Structures are given as C-alpha cells and as structure tokens.
Amino acid sequence: MPTQPETQQPHILQNSVVVFSRNYLPLTRINIKRAIVLLVTGQAESLHFGTSKQWEVRSPSIILQVSEHIRLTTANPQRHWQVPPVNRREVLKRDKHTCQYCGSSKRLTLDHVIPRCQGGQHRWDNVVTACERCNQIKGDRLPHEAGMILKNQPKAPIHPAVIFAEQFWNAQQTSE
Question: Is this structure's pTM higher than 0.70?
C-alpha cells in the first residue's frame, strides 16, 4: 500500500488575528485556529474595519468568515494580569539581558541600586541587571558613590496588553 505524503497546513491556517477586548483595546495576536475556537464558542465576534482581511473557513457543518480582527464578547475575571514577582528571570527580561551600568551581556547578576545593608528593598524599582564586574565595583555603595550611572531607571514591568496596544497603534500609524 503506497504511503501518502504528509499533508501540509493550508496557507489560511498560518494567518494570525488581532484580538481586542470588549472595550476595543488591542490585547494580543493569536493564530487563526484559536480565533476560530473563540468565534464558534461565542466568546468573540468578528470586527470589520475598512481594510480588514477576511478568510472563509469551511467545515462539514459550518462556513465561517474569520476577520483579521476579533473582539472578545465575554470577560474572564480570573484572567487579571498581575505584576510578576521580582526574580532573576523577570529582571533579566526587563533589562534585556544587559548590564544597566556598562551594557555588557556577559556574566550577569542582580544588583540592588540602594544596597540592602543601607535599607534598600528587593522591589522592582531597586533591582537591576549588572555584570559581575560592575556589581563588584559598586559593592555596598550607591551608584553615584561608586562613580557609576544607571542606563535606565528600574521600574515594574507594564501589562503586556499595554505594550501590544502601543505596538499595534504605532504600526497602524506607520502603515497609513
């Protein structure tokens, strides 16, 4: 019996869809399969903007028009985003894996801007990524006492939907 070649995903299933909140805030981009599930289960509706693309998806029992923009129709109160805890992985991610004093990306550690021995706390606004060398030079001193300058002021991460919304609207403005 001859074997059939593996079927590749149709091109349409490789598209992505922008998801808006009930209040029309762009939240994220998802694959079209997830968008279909949200539409079929009634958790979302298609949005039709002037230049929106639309794809027709067929199954044995339904023909569905999927727009490149959908809006959630339900709210899930358990899906509230919380500021992540201050830990190595999250601080490195926020600081883009670079030392906040010299810009190096090698041998990274965490540094308390106001040292803990001077009353500094382990909070988002006091912890930065530092290479071992800068951390050792700074020691238990404040940055200005060690003659060092922070490249960026440390702060808590912002909601991913806010970041996505800014990127989405900036992309819309540049494409016009």
Answer: no
